[in-house]
Amino acid sequence: MTASPRGATPAAHPGKYLVTGGAGYVGSVVAAHLLEAGHSVTVLDDLSTGFRDAVPAGAVFTEGRVQDAARVLDASYDGVLHFAAHSQVGESVQDPGKYWRNNVGGSIELLSAMREAGVRRLVFSSTAATYGEPADTPIHEDAAEAPTNPYGASKLAVDHMISGECRAHGLAAVSLRYFNVAGAYGSYGERHDPESHLIPIVLQVAQGRRESVSVFGDDYPTPDGTCVRDYIHVADLAEAHLLAMTAMTEDEGRVPSGTHLVCNLGNGNGFSVREVVETVRKVTGHPVPEAAAPRRDGDPAQLVASAERAVRQLGWRPSRTDLAGIVQDAWDFARARARQEQAGRP
Ligand code: UFG
After folding, report:
1. 151 assigned to active site
2. Largest alpha-carbon pair distance within the chain?
């Protein structure tokens, strides 16, 4: 069964939030969760990688870049959830300038628009890619930060910028460092074009839309030689964003003004590329041919989270941790999209 919008707990303090990148995968799921909890949501998205029909009904939509946030923000907003960014590791190695311009440049403008409008709470979509090749597994937030690709470096630069903004101007912020987000939430799911992430690619093979999945490298120092990642359900991830905002807005603030909390979000379980492919075969019942391919630039061998801090400080309890269940939700979403495409709907 696809994880679907369910009776969310109503927010104790309904707020008004700007969601940058709310037409994208994670942003749209978080926007849907905010609306279900009774908050008001404005989505700012330039639709460069997002889709207008992914913006949840009930959100106000403004088409524009993060750099345009000043046009939208005013003192009536309680906070910002910032997702708009380029997010492909491989592309960032090929075209680093795109990542610095958009991810860092956009965030500079957003922070100054927030300061000018007097909006003092931020949840930032950060990434495990800020750590690079970890010395220890699972990765804690105090691990060395040594990104192996410009994507991770650009997100780390924004994290540093946010810390400075908190210290200098009293912003309250939570950076959530995602490991590998996967799965779907009702009609909200992963729709990159072209697709670059492992699970949707393997599902395209199962659907007969691709001949095979390229396995990027089988000589990594991991049990089966393929890269190991920590896959986290997008709905569990979304819940952490609402908890982070609550931690900044409640009366006895756990994340008060002037504080920047950084939390990893993952399940603490690693699965190799081959294990993901095998899980897709089992869930879908379709054959999935593999093709050996060279390593992809910038890929660390293993990324597995310790999310103890999010559990302890945000009260986060991920509940969809089974890989087969995550793949099942992504599969239900992929099939529903295929049916819509066949029916001629976008
Ligand atoms: N992979 C393949 N074949 C493919 C696609 C991916 O073998 O066709 C491999 C990759 O090399 C990697 C693994 O599958 O080892 C996962 O790759 P994804 O592209 O799905 O995800 P990444 O691990 O590269 O990156 C994702 C997010 C980042 C985040 C990172 C943190 O896109 O934003 O997880 O774990 F930083």
Report:
1. yes
2. 56
